[in-house]
């Protein structure tokens, strides 16, 4: 189960948005655990915290720095602590990792060896630093957007109130990963800041900062940070509560307080003109997760777009972007592979330029040689029309991104046929429908597609990624 599903399952089973920081901070160690052996005292305290809270929280968040600071015994304590967390409860390792050249190796350690479900990262080194963590499809990252220490303001609020750096971090990091894989850590109890982040990231999980029980602005934080469904916000159990001998009761009472507010919040929101997604798991399209990820990374756009034919469409598909998101690219290749594995061919041909990376990925995945017809033939050099080696008479499967009129893919296929190659099958990711596959059939090809445009639009509408107006514009364009 991926992090997002594991987290949501725990939220609903335990009816809780609360998470607990599992921090072996010697300064916070309750007196009753203060023995000569500090590590043993910390271990017993952390075990007590887990036992008291496991049924009332949705996640645990060990802070790596506290374990590191204790040296080798601290790292051993981390491994023991991770092992004592029930496997069904997600673990978010608070590492605030930000070192570029150790990203891949660190991601492997935390996700593969330590089996944590998510990690916190700082954004300063950008997507290059985050991408190695996102190649683990079942894991997630939380990007630190904002903190509340006074010295941070000069950087995080730069250059002005209207467009502070922390909001730019939110906007930019939304391009790095899907809402299921990338959440935001908002290290402030300033409700206004939380509200401004929620307004530009309604779809993201926000992890709020650790608070002190007596701070008293819980309701403002909830009002600012909850999403329209009354969730999407992870609230830490206050640090001072963790020292209490009555931890279980105190956590349950905080949970009740939060849930009461959530019920009122959802009730109030439902009286406003807010459209809420209404889907059940049974209705889930088999490629729903992939469709959402493609939408979230900007491969599927809605608006008015002029096509090569001059026609205006209410959407535009730009699958070229997948090459910058390896985890999405990998899933796209797998979806094509499902179709190609049932076909018979000697070589794979990609249509330039958009489908060359896909054809390359499929060639490597299926151990099958690749060729491609050139878009324009050079006036110098070999003047080859087709790049790569082949033997006339071989069968080639043609791979392209989207079929609109079918013109570009059939032009490419004709070049291959002129060189003596046989083409039976054309496989695309998206079929624009409206008879384009019939056009392929009329020209002697069998068209296959991973998805049709209406499957994509309907899925996006069902989960609330597009609105009534966008759905209507699409439906009208079909006639
Ligand atoms: O949303 C779109 C629409 C078109 N493209 C590009 O056009 C061709 C397909 O158009 P045909 O009319 O079938 O020739 C496709 O290969 C893309 O390059 C697009 O990317 N997105």
Whole-Å distance between the termini?
A: 41 Å
| Overall mean confidence score, pLDDT | 91
Please indicate the percent range of residues in DSSP E strands (runs of 2 or more): 15-25%
Provide the number of structural domains: 2
Spans of at least 5 consecutive residues with low confidence: 271-281
Total number of strands:
16
Rg over C-alpha atoms, rounded to the nearest angstrom: 26 Å
Put simply, the count of helices is 18
Helix percent reads 40-55%
Distinct ligand kinds: ligand LLZGTKA7
* Main beta-sheet strand count, sense and barrel state: 8 strands, parallel
Fourth CATH level, the homologous superfamily of the largest domain: Aldolase class I
Report the structural category: alpha/beta
CATH top level class name of the largest domain: Alpha Beta
The CATH architecture category of the largest domain equals: Alpha-Beta Barrel
CATH topology of the largest domain: TIM Barrel
Overall shape: elongated
Sheet with most strands: strand arrangement? 2-1-8-7-6-5-4-3
What is the topological layout?
Blueprint: H1 3-14, E1 18-21, H2 38-53, E2 59-61, H3 64-68, H4 71-84, E3 92-97, H5 103-113, E4 118-121, H6 127-134, E5 140-147, H7 153-156, H8 165-174, E6 182-187, H9 191-200, E7 206-208, H10 218-225, E8 233-236, H11 247-270, H12 288-296, E9 300-306, E10 312-317, H13 326-340, E11 347-350, H14 356-366, E12 370-373, E13 386-387, E14 395-403, H15 407-418, E15 422-431, H16 436-442, E16 446-452, H17 453-462, H18 468-477
Parallel strand pairs: 1-2, 1-8, 3-4, 4-5, 5-6, 6-7, 7-8, 11-12, 11-14, 14-15, 15-16
Antiparallel strand pairs: 9-10, 12-13
This protein binds the ligand O=c1ccn([C@@H]2O[C@H](COP(=O)(O)O)[C@@H](O)[C@H]2O)c(=O)[nH]1.
Ligand LLZGTKA7 binds at residues 307-308, 316-318, 354, 400-408.
């Amino acid at each position: 189960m991926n992090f997002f599903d594991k987290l949501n399952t725990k939220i609903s089973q335990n009816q809780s948005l609360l998470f607990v920081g599992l921090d072996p901070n010697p300064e916070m160690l309750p007196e009753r655990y203060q023995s000569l052996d500090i590590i043993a005292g910390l271990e017993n305290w952390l075990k007590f915290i887990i036992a008291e809270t496991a049924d009332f929280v949705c996640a645990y968040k060990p802070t790596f720095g506290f374990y590191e600071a204790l040296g080798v015994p601290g790292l051993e304590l981390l491994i023991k602590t991770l092992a004592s967390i029930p496997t069904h409860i997600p673990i978010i390792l608070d590492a605030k990792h930000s070192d570029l050249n150790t990203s891949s190796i660190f991601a492997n350690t935390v996700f593969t060896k330590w089996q944590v479900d998510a990690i916190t990262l700082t954004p300063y080194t950008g997507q290059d630093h985050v991408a190695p963590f996102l190649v683990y499809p079942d894991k997630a990252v939380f990007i630190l957007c904002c903190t509340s220490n006074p010295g941070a303001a000069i950087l995080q609020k730069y250059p002005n109130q209207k467009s502070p750096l922390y909001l730019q971090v939110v906007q930019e990091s939304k391009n790095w990963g899907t809402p299921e894989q990338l959440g935001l850590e908002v290290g402030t109890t300033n409700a206004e800041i939380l509200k401004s982040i929620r307004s530009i990231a309604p779809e993201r999980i926000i992890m709020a900062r650790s608070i002190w029980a007596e701070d008293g602005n819980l309701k403002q934080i909830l009002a600012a940070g909850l999403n329209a469904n009354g969730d999407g916000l992870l609230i830490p159990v206050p640090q001072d509560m963790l020292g209490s001998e009555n931890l279980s009761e105190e956590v349950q009472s905080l949970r009740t307080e939060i849930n009461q507010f959530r019920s009122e919040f959802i009730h109030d929101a439902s009286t406003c003109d807010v459209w809420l997604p209404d889907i059940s798991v049974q209705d889930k399209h088999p490629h729903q997760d992939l469709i959402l990820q493609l939408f979230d990374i900007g491969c599927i756009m809605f608006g008015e777009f002029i096509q090569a034919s001059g026609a205006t469409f209410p959407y535009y598909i730009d699958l070229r972007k997948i090459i910058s998101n390896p985890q999405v690219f990998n899933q796209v290749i797998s979806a094509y592979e499902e179709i190609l594995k049932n076909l018979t061919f000697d070589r794979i041909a990609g249509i330039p330029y958009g489908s060359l990376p896909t054809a390359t990925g499929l060639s490597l995945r299926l151990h099958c040689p690749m060729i491609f017809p050139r878009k324009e033939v050079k006036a110098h050099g070999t003047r080859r029309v087709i790049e790569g080696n082949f033997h006339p008479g071989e069968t080639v499967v043609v791979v392209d991104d989207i079929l609109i009129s079918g013109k570009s893919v059939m032009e490419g296929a004709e070049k291959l046929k002129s060189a003596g190659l046989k083409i039976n099958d054309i496989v695309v990711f998206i079929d624009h429908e409206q008879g384009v596959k019939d056009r392929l059939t009329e020209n002697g090809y069998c068209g296959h597609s991973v998805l049709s445009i209406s499957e994509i639009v309907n899925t996006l509408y069902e989960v609330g990624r597009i609105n009534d107006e966008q759905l209507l514009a699409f439906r009208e364009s079909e006639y």
